[in-house]
Amino acid sequence: MRSAPTFFLSLAVLLSTSLLVDASQEAQLSKFVKASRIAPLPGRSMILRPGGSKEADRIAALPGQPPRVDFEQYAGYVTVDEDDGRELFYYFVEAPHDAASKPLILWLNGGPGCSSLGYGAMMELGPFRVKPGGRMLSRNRHAWNNVANILFLESPAGVGFSLSGNATDWKSVRDGRIAEDTYLFLVSWLERFPEYKGREFYVAGESYGGHYVPQAATVITFMNRRLYGEQTPINLLGIFLGNPLLDEYLYYQGYLEFLRGHGIISDEVWADIIANGTFHDQLKCTLPEHTFEGAKIDCFNLYAPVCLRSRNGTYSSSSYKSLHARIGTWSACIPNMVRVESPAFMVPTISGDFDSTCSLDVTRYSVKDLNLAVTENWRPWYIPNGEVGGFVQQYQGGFTLASVRAAGHMVPAFQPERSLILLNSFLKNKLPPAGIPNWISL
């Protein structure tokens, strides 16, 4: 197994230092160790609620997929709580070439409570895109499985195809439990796919993934230290975040500054905000109306064209069986989900610059709060056609902030090539190209 690059190790250590200093949280994780029926065994990394099989989860083909698909696909359920009947659904795609030598990335969508299958896999970074009409798929040439094996997890229970027998799980969630469930999922999933034990591993996500991703990384780091030392089956090397919600205290300050800077609000409204500290209801971005002050503008990408027809968030049942999902209602996000005991501050790495919902302005405030020394000054980075892909700055310990030029909230959906270039640079422990790159050599 390759030694971990300093960049990723430093980032993982930063996460654990930031989030495990609270004695009460460490006590909670210790309690979790005892309650989760995890036990290391001689000659094995761990055993936990065996069930399911890799072959049973293999997907022969998805309905409407294009011909000559040259990678393996899997989907199925992993039980994370037998008592409550909590089962998390996953969709896994391997790399078309040299999958055995490529890292594993866990992808978590935000929301909170939105589908990694419906958004991440089918609209952003997955190998396919859904064609108009919803019955056929096309190949995404900038899919992330070009450079890694990607595991999409529907979390928490109630999102997408993930299920729970406990009705309260569908109404309210606690960030800590979601992180614990993610860990339990990974442990069981690795028993099903043992060839990925010890593989270079990263956690990635967007939006409220700014909470999910670092908290999952914290639990993984804690459990590795507590149970396995250097023989851990989960070889976490770093995290990769897009337009993350990181600091809820500073969220509205950056949000409003972004709207003013892009001409969405008037000088008079801005003056009233400064003078009275009031937040105008018309500034809220409502979905699916996409309304700012009565204007039909997509708050996830201010300069994108807007379809005024509402999405109903459903799939036809013909695709359920091929995905090994239970037939029933699928929804993109849990409606009216209540967050319980959710921390307000997290750690940033990357942001698109057209997104008002979790804007670059908000991310910069969060980075400033970390008070890290700059090691590489803010500079442009480039894509193969010579355009500026965005800007990047690196800090002590390898912590990196990058913007993606002309990207909205879901960066891989709006700028797939730029997103893939950034991911590839991240996996190679490099900053994105300072000059016009040769895509083949990235």
UniProtKB/TrEMBL annotation:
<feature type="signal peptide">
    <location>
        <begin position="1"/>
        <end position="23"/>
    </location>
</feature>
<dbReference type="Pfam" id="PF00450">
    <property type="entry name" value="Peptidase_S10"/>
</dbReference>
<keyword id="KW-0121">Carboxypeptidase</keyword>
<dbReference type="InterPro" id="IPR001563">
    <property type="entry name" value="Peptidase_S10"/>
</dbReference>
<keyword id="KW-0732">Signal</keyword>
<dbReference type="InterPro" id="IPR018202">
    <property type="entry name" value="Ser_caboxypep_ser_AS"/>
</dbReference>
<keyword id="KW-0645">Protease</keyword>
<dbReference type="GO" id="GO:0006508">
    <property type="term" value="P:proteolysis"/>
</dbReference>
<keyword id="KW-0378">Hydrolase</keyword>
<comment type="similarity">
    <text>Belongs to the peptidase S10 family.</text>
</comment>
<dbReference type="InterPro" id="IPR029058">
    <property type="entry name" value="AB_hydrolase_fold"/>
</dbReference>
<dbReference type="GO" id="GO:0005773">
    <property type="term" value="C:vacuole"/>
</dbReference>
<protein>
    <recommendedName>
        <fullName>Carboxypeptidase</fullName>
        <ecNumber>3.4.16.-</ecNumber>
    </recommendedName>
</protein>
<dbReference type="GO" id="GO:0004185">
    <property type="term" value="F:serine-type carboxypeptidase activity"/>
</dbReference>
